[in-house]
Amino acid sequence: MSQTLIRNATIVAMDKVHGARPFTGDILIDGASIKAIGAALTAEPDTKIIDGRGKLVMPGLVNSHTHSSETFYRGRYERMPLEIWLLYAYPLLMNDPVGERLLYLRSLLLAMESLRNGVTTFCDDFFDPPRHDLDRLSTVFRAYDDAGIRANVSSAVMNIHTLDALPFAREVMPDDLKALLDFGPPITANAYMDYCRSAFASLHGKSSRLNFMIAPSAPQRCAPDLMLACMDLAVEKGVPFHTHILETKTQAVTGPLLYGKTLIAYMHDLGLLRRNTTIAHSVWVSDDDMRMMGEAGVSVAHNAISNLKLGAGIAPVRRLLDAGVTIGLGTDGVSSNDTSRIFDVMRVAGLVHSAAGPDYDQWLRAEEVLTMATIGGARTAMLEHVTGSLEVGKAADLLILNLRTYPFLPLNDVAKHLVYAENGSSVEMVMVAGRVVMQDGRLTTVDEEAIFDELAELMPAYLAEHAELERRNKAFEPTMAEIHRRSTEMDIGLNRYHG
Asked: What CATH number has the domain spanning 61-380?
């Protein structure tokens, strides 16, 4: 197998020894993995040598939570809380699923943008209603394999009717609209388990970079037997149980009204807070919630930009960390973020928590944010033994950045530059599993111009069709607006959960 030696580079390893403290050294890559890190390393005669002087080498970034199904809706929505936004990005009244070619291109485009901007691993909470189709899931896997990215991919599931998953819904929705929401019989736990086992057998691990993960959408959207079956299989296979909990005030109201307790307490009582549990958002959590989460060893994917754009709030990240919760960073989908750049999320996460209170000792440090974007994110994906830090034996998932660029001049503190100044523009090379997938501003695995040309041809008709779908679903907006209003005005002690 071929070797690559990066010599005399500034290294930010994010390992247990160095953390975010930079040091100068060499990295020897043998095939897909890191063979040695040190000074004056030797290599075989035919080893490719990369001069690391003036370069920064760091682990590839991990996007802990995204949705490829939103990739075509960038720049389309604003000024909508989640419950209204969902009507348009995830319509109640649906057309036929996007065709196979567009499904492939949609997935590929997300992987392309991610790799160009230093994301070498992401967790795609792929949602493809109205059914679970192994051939369509394999199309997503094929796109990610072609791009060269590392990914956990789900086929997100729910089996509780929308009217029963939202507080006040049956009360405030007009009967004529209720009549339109006939989704047929919900999927059973056994049927979903059969599907998941087929996905594990045919797709999981067939490429060393690509895994299947299990993603029950949210506790209020999934019956208990389905969630319990999902957890059992996640533990058996050693993959994340990836779900959404307490993103909005409406969801904070949902727990007490539907279950008589917070959604985290509901999960706890079902035995669903485990090491495998990765929670997207975790904005409206109480101190008791956080204590249970920390004791169980759960992870949180913090979606700082998406939570702001949808008006969901600011997750109590400092208190989550203090409680022992692992934190990774996620973009969420590009419709609620408008970018797949984790560099953007790092900057916002590093800044927004300074507005959470006057005690500046509690504000996040750059090193903590960088940890969330690398090894913390790998832990949320249950891939910390594979990626997230530069260590001997781990996969060679790494970035090489040029330090002679505006974000690093003059060079002061590397971690602070990466969090507050860099936006991905300094990334010169991206390597995944020892393979160079981006170099000198160009992807090596995909013909970007050809993909852009094809999308330019196909998008007008697709977006026109989606605009008609938006028009049909707009009828539900007054109902969702009323649910949002009632939830935000309820005073059941939830304000103490926030901030």
From this structure: 3.20.20.140
